[in-house]
Amino acid sequence: MSAQIVAPAIDARGIRRVYAAKPEPVTALAGVDLEVHPGELFGLLGPNGAGKTTLIKILTTLLLPSAGTARVFGFDIEKETKQIRRIMNMVAGGEQSGYGILTVREQLWMFSQFYGLGSREGWGRVDELIDAVGLEEQRQQRVSSLSTGQRQKMNFARGLLNDPWILFLDEPTLGLDVSAARAVRELVTGWQAAVPGRTVLLTTHYMAEADELCERIAIVDRGRVLAIGTPAELKQRVQRESIFRIELDRLTGGPTVLARLPGVVSATAAADGNGGGEGADPRRTVAVSLVLHDDAALGGVVGALGGLGSRILALRKSEPTLEEVFVELVGRGLEDAEGPATNGSGPIGPSRPETAHEPGEPEPEEVG
Amino acid sequence: MTTRAFVGRPTAGPREAADWSRGQVLSNDLRSVVGRAFPRVRGMAREPSWLLFEILLPFLTTSSFVFVYQALHAPPEYIGFVVLGGAMTAFWLNVVWMMAAQLYWEKDQGNLELYFAAPMDVMSVLFGMAIGGLIMSATRAAVVLVVASVVYRVQFSVEQWGLLLLVFFLTLAALYGLGMVLASLFLMWGREAWHLTQLLAEPVYFVSGLNFPVAALGRIGALALATIPLATGLDAMRQLAFSGSVGPVFLSPEVEALILIAMTVLFVLLARFMLRTLEERARREGRLTVRWR
């Protein structure tokens, strides 16, 4: 199937979006270029107010760009809206859509009718999806009585009713507890992997979520894409040196012995270990944090340790986190960028109030 | 986890999946009408409070006018006028208080965004809302009409059943067409439109002639007949349900039926135009589909 998909799933060129706000217009997107391949799970990572939701609204045909062009599977977002709407769906975190008076089953059936499913076909599809997202016990429960996690699972099922080729997920785990967030992430990956060519564009400000789910990530801040790549590629941008944690049965002379070896930038006692050397507890193992110019220097260190009579118990390469990548690119941490009222550490803390646009984004008034 | 549900309905690719025939488009729009009417109809059975608020209370209002007419020894068909007006009040209330505010409410719930993002024509949503509301109100109106007719022994005198039914349905069509227009206005102006409706509620009640023949109001009544579907429909229905009754008459039921047809066409076209404009504006300005705006 995927061989038949020739156009990029998303092809955005020079997208700008300016909101007329008081006292002066605010630029939400300042020239975004983005290409997402069919079958990709692509993440937009950035703080609140970065422009992620604005970009999603433009790609889902709900908002026009002030400048630039964008295509979804080759369909123009300005002129071919109906075609795009037939093959896409969207789910937002904290979504309260639908009617509380209906049961889960009825609500999903109602939405199925908006996507052209026959009445009987709709009921069948709804039952399948209810089972798939694990809401069997809530099937006949009123929507108004669902928990936040159950509600989000139902929203996710709604997003799959029409078998979209592209699914836009705007902060899908927002406000969910750890277990519910994990369930939603598993649903996303399970659904996407089921049919080749299905594409997911996910916005999040949870670093771990982006790292876990996304094949490629665009780091967005203040309406600009600062970097695009796989999580590994992005991390490599900030990893100029190789960092290892090495655990030894003993180390005569302590870490300073290793620091003198060629290719070693520094060797220090690991924060959580016994540093060895004078005064060290001989009954404990020795943990050393090694910073090397590159991986090649590791051979020399291992050889030297053999000469010193040390036995290597464990060796682990340390990788930078996306948080470090973000700090490197943006010049501040994600939490700093969001301000004190928001929770950027992961889907564990309290949720922010529901808003359709991100709190940091300008309140949309009119296009500039 | 059921992976079969995740496989869904296979299509060759996104381009093919997006290529709908006219039949598919029409079918999708019609199904959307049914889909949007669904929560209204289901909700009826789940909210028994409507028995109190929309049957008992309107019945009491109707009764008060009945007692006044009885005390004045008015002709017996006037009791019938009031009962008929009381029944039609259900539709008017539904249009003004529920239908008109519906899109605005949908926006606040976050539904409007999903409607705009779905492949159906958004007019289907308005039609669905109208049909759902109509079914709900028809039930209530029927209960008021039957109960009040029995309690106050109303004697109907119908010679043209066909025309009476036609006028009834045309009145509903025109009323809900107006509801569609109001829904778009509410979405655009929000609270301001709500306040305006509140301001106009009583005067519209008055000139609609819910409890007396509207022709008694002279020129104002004539103006109401030409502009307010409730007034036009009620006047025609009175003439048809109580044929030969006394009371001033401006226009024949046939002419009023034509006015109702014109109103229906006008309101539906106007609603369609406004919704298209609103959707365009929503995309341009980004605020009409956004909650809390």
Set down the secondary structure blueprint.
The complex is a heterodimer of chains A (368) and B (293).
Chain A: E1 10-19, E2 26-36, E3 41-45, H1 52-59, E4 67-72, E5 75-76, H2 81-87, E6 88-92, H3 104-113, H4 119-132, H5 148-160, E7 166-170, H6 178-194, E8 199-204, H7 207-213, E9 216-221, E10 224-229, H8 231-238, E11 242-248, H9 256-259, E12 264-269, E13 286-292, H10 297-307, E14 312-318, H11 322-330, H12 334-338
Chain B: H1 3-7, H2 14-18, H3 22-46, H4 50-71, H5 76-109, H6 111-117, H7 122-151, H8 161-189, H9 191-208, H10 219-227, H11 229-241, H12 253-285
> How many beta-strand runs of chain B?
0
Distance between the termini of chain A: 41 Å
Question: Which regions of chain B contain 5 or more consecutive residues with pLDDT less than 50?
Answer: none
Specify the overall morphology of chain A. Answer: elongated
Discrete helix count of chain B: 12
Distance, first to last CA of chain B: 39 Å
Describe the structure.
The complex is a heterodimer of chains A (368) and B (293). Chain A has two domains: 2-237, P-loop containing nucleotide triphosphate hydrolases (Rossmann fold, 3-Layer(aba) Sandwich), CATH 3.40.50.300; 241-318, Alpha-Beta Plaits, CATH 3.30.70. Chain A is built from twelve helices and 14 strands. Chain A has helices at residues 52-59, 81-87, 104-113, 119-132, 148-160, 178-194, 207-213, 231-238, 256-259, 297-307, 322-330, 334-338, and strands at 10-19, 26-36, 41-45, 67-72, 75-76, 88-92, 166-170, 199-204, 216-221, 224-229, 242-248, 264-269, 286-292, 312-318. In chain A, the strands form three sheets. In chain A, strands 6-7-8-3-9-10 form a six-stranded mixed beta sheet, with helices on both faces. In chain A, strands 2-1-4-5 form a four-stranded antiparallel beta sheet, with helices on one face. Chain A has a four-stranded antiparallel beta sheet with strand order 12-13-11-14. The longest helix of chain A has 17 residues, at 178-194. In chain B, helix 8 packs antiparallel against helix 9.
